[in-house]
Amino acid sequence: MRILFVIGNLGDYHVPRYEALTELAADRGHQVSLVEGFSRSPLYDFPQARRAAFFNSSPSNAVTLLEGACEADGHWCRIGAGVFAALRRFNPDVVVTHGYNSNYSFFLLLAKLLRRRFALIYMSDSKADDGKRYLIKEGLKRIVVSRYDGALVAGEKHRAYAKSLGIPMARSRIGFDVIDVDYFSKKARAALASASTIRERFGLPERYVLCVSRFVKRKNVDLVIEAFFRSGLHAAGLSLVLVGQGPCEGQIRDEIDRRGMKNHIVVLNSVVNSDMPGLYSLAEFVVLGSAFDQWGLCINEAFAAGRPAIVTRTCGVANELVLEGLNGFIVEPGDVSAMADRMVQLATVPGMQERLSDNAAWSIRRWTPKFFATNVIELAESLAGAETAAYMPA
Predict the structure, then answer these.
(1) Do residues 291 and 220 lie in contact, with contact meaning Cβ atoms separated by under 8 Å?
(2) In 10 A of CB 155, how many CB atoms?
(3) Residue 17's domain spans which residues?
(4) To the nearest whole number, what is the mean pLDDT of the chain?
């Protein structure tokens, strides 16, 4: 079976997933090829070290369509020409693409509808409660998504949403949002041995709560600040460390000043992925207060570093990876009082943080690139068989 993996930008999170996919595919006698639309990420300004290392190794059957560009730049005509050329070159039995609303996914679906003989799988972490949904828009989305053959999504609530868009449960799998757990865990453990150096380099307090989030409105970083203020933990010697960047940074800094918390809250911008294990490993626990979040990979990272988490119910990880009272806590979005109470519990109840930390490290063991690769391959094998049967001559 020939599998074509199509993505806008093969960033650092995607590299270990793709590498696991190629390794498992080879073990099963399949071939995987890669089409990357753009060499730059629209989300991250800092260097993507794992992507650079991957392409510096001159991987076979891998092509980038547009060097020096990112998905936000558009380039519909050039992407369309590149996608059709790649389909002719690699002649796939199955195509796996990132999302269903990108320009490259549009051309892949168009090619399929023009009777190209391949099964088409999309990868996504969208779910029903990602903000307000509009009936007409959802109806149009269903028309598009139902033309896909299958979906690799984040978790069970994401499978339910895919089903509402026309993908039967039998043709979806979970495991899209995974990280390289072994890599992250090893780096986190190593960081503990050089804690003083890391603290000095980043100006980290001795004890702190960590929030890793883009500085955009729906992430509710201002509410995390308010909850931390209400918790009173700063009076007990704990600080809050915010890692992120985005258009709301000015408002966030204003909120810190308004609360008189400048000496208790540290803001870090553009920390590269390779440095993040150290920041997680030295934290007490992690907080994600989003109004909604499709998943929340920072929680995967926290768990890989053995740190529990407080998340809102509308984060994708809630009740999928984060389990109430087992490895963290789940609060309603916008409930600052509940968030503050949970912060106090985690910071002060004897033995709780240690117990939840151990459970967090155990819980993440399943959510690995191998889990991603296994579910992609199994779904592809089932769909490739169905697609072949559909085109068998009578």
Answers:
(1) yes
(2) 21
(3) 2-178+368-390
(4) 94
In this structure, are 152 and 83 located in the same domain?
A: yes
Can you read off the two tokens belonging to residue 97? 């693409």
Q: Are residues 166 and 200 in the same domain?
A: no
Backbone angles phi, psi at 93, to 5 degrees: -85, -30
Is the same domain home to 212 and 341?
A: yes
pLDDT score recorded for residue 74: 81
Indicate the residue type of 221: V
pLDDT in tens, 184-206: 999 999 999 999 999 999 999 99
Residues across the chain? 394
DSSP state of 71: G
Per-residue pLDDT of 48-87, as tens digits, reads 889 999 999 999 899 999 999 988 888 999 999 999 999 9
User: In the chain, which residue ranges form alpha helices assigned H by DSSP?
Assistant: 14-27, 49-56, 76-90, 103-113, 135-145, 156-164, 181-192, 195-202, 221-231, 249-258, 276-281, 297-304, 336-348, 352-363, 369-390
Placement of tokens 């993440």 in the chain = 364
Residue 143 half-sphere exposure, CB side, CA atoms within 13 Å? 5
Place of tokens 């796996």: 96
In angstroms, the CA 71 to CA 41 distance is 7
Domain at 31, CATH number = 3.40.50.2000
Secondary structure (3-state) at 6: strand
> How many independent structural domains does the chain possess?
2
- Residues 244 and 350 reside in one and the same domain: yes
User: Is the same domain home to 44 and 153?
Assistant: yes
Residue from 66, 64, 65, 62 nearest 32 by CA? 62
Give the C-alpha separation, 292 to 333, whole Å. 8
Both 348 and 267 in a single domain? yes
* pLDDT tens per residue, range 2-26: 999 999 999 999 999 999 999 999 9
Q: What is the pLDDT of residue 72?
A: 83
Residue in the structure block whose two tokens are 């828009």: 137
Q: Smallest Cα–Cα separation from 226: which of 216, 214, 211, 212?
A: 211
Rounded to whole angstroms, what are the CA distances from 362 to 55, 186, 258, 297, 356? 33, 14, 40, 16, 10
Same domain, residue pair 105 and 11: yes
In this structure, are residues 223 and 252 in contact, taking their beta carbons and an 8 Å threshold?
Answer: no
Task: Please tell me whether residues 20 and 100 are part of one structural domain.
Answer: yes
By the 10 Å C-beta count (0-12 exposed, 13-18 middle, 19+ buried), 250 is classed as exposed
